[in-house]
Structure formats: C-alpha cells, structure tokens
Amino acid sequence: MSEEEKTINKENEKPCGMSKKQAIIFWIIFPFVSLLITALMVFYLDLARGPLAITIIEFINIAVAVVLTIIFRNKRVYFRLIPLSAFFIITAILLPLANPIIVKKHATGNLNATPTEVLELQNGKVRGIYNNDETVEVYAGIPYAKAPVGEYRWKEPEDVTNWEGIKDCSYFAPMAVQSSRPAAISSLVDLYAEKSWHPNYLTTYVQDQSEDCLYLNIWKPHTSEPNLPILIYYHGGSLTSGSSADDGFNGEMMAKKGIIMITVSYRLGIFGYFAHQELRNESVNHTTGNYGLLDQIKALKWVNDNASYFGGDKSNITIAGESAGSSSVSAICSSPLASGLFKRAIGESSSVVVKRPPHTFRTMEKALKVGKDTFKEFNVTSIEELRKIPAKELINTSYNNDSMTIDGYALTKYPYEVYEAGENNEEALLNGFNVLEADAFVVPSFLLDPTNKDNIYSRLEPLFGISIAKKLMEALEDEIEADAFTAFNKIYSTYWFMHPHQSWTEEALKNGETVYRYQFTKSNGFIGTYHSGEIIYAYNNVKKERDKASYRYDDSDIALSDTMSSYWVNFVKTGDPNGTNLPTWNPYNLTDKKIMELGSNVGPIDDPYQKLYPIIDEFIESQILKEEI
Predict the structure, then answer these.
(1) CA–CA separation, 69 and 81 (whole Å)
(2) Claim: this prediction has a pTM higher than 0.85
(3) Residues of the chain falling short of pLDDT 50
(4) 390 CA to centre of own chain
(5) Which of 215, 205, 204 is nearest to 174 (CA)?
(6) pLDDT score for 531
(7) 3-class state of residue 397 by DSSP
(8) Distances (CA, A) of 180 to 64, 152, 200, 213, 268
(9) Would you please indicate which residues are annotated as catalytic (active-site) residues?
(10) Each residue of 517-546: b (16+ CB within 10 Å) or e?
C-alpha cells in the first residue's frame, strides 16, 4: 500500500463526531438549553389554554428531540441537525393548535340537567333547563329580533319571526362577531392582575361567534309567583367585545334571591356602530351608527312584551351594565325610544352623561368619516358591496367602531342635554366605580417606562393642555411626590370613569332622583379593584369562581359578594338597596358627598376625587369652547 493510500485510510478512520473539547461544551450547554426550551414550552402552553393533548404531544416532541440529539451527538453534522429540525417543525405545527376549543356553551355546564316545562312566549314555545338544585329555570339563547345578516346587516333590528315547535334553550347562542386576542395575551393580562402564576393545563373552552347574535338569556326562580322584578344586564367590552354568557354575571344566584335576571347580546364593533350616509339615506328612521344601541333597546321592548309570559313584572324593570354596558345604560336612560320601558338603572364604571364623554361616544361627523375610510379600506363603492364581504374579513378592519353617536333617532342630543332638560327615563339610579379603573388601560402604554414625578407632566400635557395639566399636578402635589405612578393613574381614572359618574349623579339629582353611589375597594387574588373587578361580587358569583380557583377569593370575598348582590337585588325590587342585616347605604347628596365603600369595610366614606372634578369640568368647558371657535 502506498503512503498516499495509508493517509487516506487514516483520514477515513477519524471519528466524524465531536472532539473532546466539543463534547465538554455540549454536556455543559445542552442540558441548560433543553431545560430552558422545556420551561418556555410549559409556560407558553399554559398561557395558550389549549387542549391537554397538544401539551402532551409537545412534551413527547421535546423528549424525543433530547434523546435523539444525545444519540446523534457523534454523527456527522447533517445527522445531528435532524432532531433539532424535527423539533422545530413539529412545534410550528402544534403551537397554532394550542388554543382554546371553540364550542357551543351550555347554559349550566351540566349536560344531564333536568329540562323545564315548556314555556310559551309571544313568538313561540321554548324549553330550558334547571340549575343543579332545581331552584332556578334557565332559558338561554332566546331570539329577540331577526338575525341581522345579509340584507339586514346595518339595519334597525326587526321583529323576530315566529317559530314552530319547541325551541331548545339549553345552550347559549353564539356571541357577537368580534376580534379575539390570542389566548396567551389574555393569560398574560390575568398574570399581571394576579401578580402570580398558577399553572392550569386543563383544556379551556370558548364560546362560538356569529353575526346572528341577537339573543338573550333568562334566569328565573322556579316558582309560580307572578310579577317578579326584572333585571336586564348589558355586558361590557368597549362596544367591540364581550358575551352575554360570561360567568361573572351569570344570573343563577340573583334568581335565587327572588328576581328574574336577563342578559343581552347585541351587535359589536363594525357591525354595531358603523355609520355611513348611504345607510342613513336608506333608513326609514334616517339613522346610522347606533345599531348595537338599537339592539339593546329592542331587547328591552321584547322583555316588556313577554314579561307576563315568564312571570315578570314589566312595570318593575331595572337595566344594568358595566363599562361599555354602563355607557349603554346611560344612553338608554337618554333615549326617547326607551321611554316608559324600565324604571331604574344601575351603572358600573362608565357613563356618557357628561358634556363631552371621554369614551364610547363620538360625533356623527367623525362616525361618517370613519365610514368613508372603511369604504376605501375594503375597496367598495356601495353598502350593497360592503354587505357582501364576509364577517370574518370585516371584523379585521383597521378603523375603530367603538362609539355611539347622536343619530337623531336613538339619541337626539347629548345624553347630558337630555338630563338637563329633565327628559331622562329612569326614576332611581345606583352607580359607581372601582379604585384602579384606568390601570389596565394606562399601565400597558408605559410598561417599559413607568410614570414617575419627572415625566408625569409630559404625559398629562398632550391630553389636558398646559394649564389643566399644571392644575391637576398641583391638586395632587403630595400624592405625586409620594407615588407619581399611582397619582397619574388616579387622574386618568377620574377623567375616564369617576368624573362621568359624578356628572351622571349630579344631573339625576337635579331631576329629583334618588341616587346611590359606591366605590369598590376589595383586593383579592385576581382582578381586585381594577376595571370590572366588582362584577363577580355584584352578581353573587364569587363562590362559584372560588370553587374553580381557590387562590383568587376567600371567605371575606364571599361575604362581600353576598352583601353587594343583596344591595343590587333590593334596589331592583324596590329602588332602595337597604335591607335586613345590611350596613345602611344612604342616598348620595351634594352636602356631605358621601359614597358607599364596598370592600373590606362596608360603609360611607368621603369621595376621594372631589378636588379633581372641578378641574375636569374646566377642561371639558375648554374643549367645548374650542369646538365653538
């Protein structure tokens, strides 16, 4: 054998795998990287809330990749790349599948629930189901108007068509079409609220969606007693999201306290608040831009027409809502179309009864401009063309349709002006807000650069202007010095939420109404006093939630929930929240300006925002002056 052949053979005999140095590096880095990838997958798959099977398959994928990487570590490079490549390919396939499962939501969660007797309504017969102890009848997914699809998209809601046979009402109807943020993002929001991570790999289910969404749900006591008080609840969600089937305001526990509770689904976003002159022209009422609001009023009319069929008293109806639902309640209180259809109102954490509402309201001029821009976005020249575009495409519009407007039909002037004229609809009002209302909206905007006393002015001035920003800072000088982050959020909370409730209260008092005012202050292991934190207490669902996630609520939360829901129920029944074994809740008055604290302490306190209200008033007056110029 020649020297050259010997050299070639020696080269072929050299190992093709790692050198000793590479092997040392591999055994140092590989375990760390494997654990890091596993931890990231564990965290993400928990946040994603998808099927448990996906999580199991992904863990098998990781384990196989780790084993094969070790086995192939001394193979040639292209062999060593196989486990890694396979891991990323399989992960890329699995992660999009790691989302909650979309289902038709059952009215009680008990698929073996006992069916109710047939209930005959004005438009046909329905059969619901009982709750577990058969003290409450539940009728879910009852249509109150014709499906707003096809030619009925962007039209006033039409009377529901009579149906034949017995409609099964054991499942909620789909919620209105809406943009859904990824489940992982929602989980991160919960993580921020809870301030801790509680892994839960059980499969999560989410309600289905449809443009055919004009349905309501009824919880009524299982009793033959007639003329029960009725509470109608409109969900929140910025007029762009939300569901009438949310567990936070499930009506079972309220029905157990002797009232009928009804939750309403209505059109959202571009389907509920889109405006265009062509739509205005084709409407017999010359209206556009308030389809969701018209849905809400249509549901209210339906309840009036059907109350006697399901044992309700149409002369004793209270409407309620939270956030955009509360804005809607204040608008319904101001609508001539709702006159005589209800008696009282409950508003939680929003109102448009202010000279210039800070949110969920816009001028018709702005609404029509967005309508024109939307035409350009979808490259259409007529409403007929836009109606042909599938809902799943329309919902992804880049323009906001999240506000009501003065359309001359549902709303003939600013709600504030309606109250000034003494033309509002309710006879009594219960309303209020939470401590940290604006945090969930403000904090994400400055997550990487929190507000402090050095930058607070630069953040107030763009919205409020130089003069008002300085006055706000002077009013909270000591608070800013101590904690500028909290003081900044307090200012925004006051502008967006507390001040509109102050305005609503003052206007109602001018008209001789009795007004009960609250601030929710109860901390807990979940949302606490952030925006929407009070809902689960007010509608007595804390205990149900604690049974599912015990770390969120304790016995003190259950006790407060019982107290708050009793206040709400008493107000629905009589217009007065007070009752046996409840701390006295005095009506609000402009002399002592006391509001009811609902928290670890339940009792009257001074309104903490009084010194900010006049400054916000001054700011709004300056806005109006600019409009006139």
Answers:
(1) 8
(2) yes
(3) 5-15
(4) 24
(5) 215
(6) 95
(7) coil
(8) 34, 24, 21, 16, 12
(9) 323
(10) bbbbbbebbbbbbbbbbbbbbbbbbbebbb
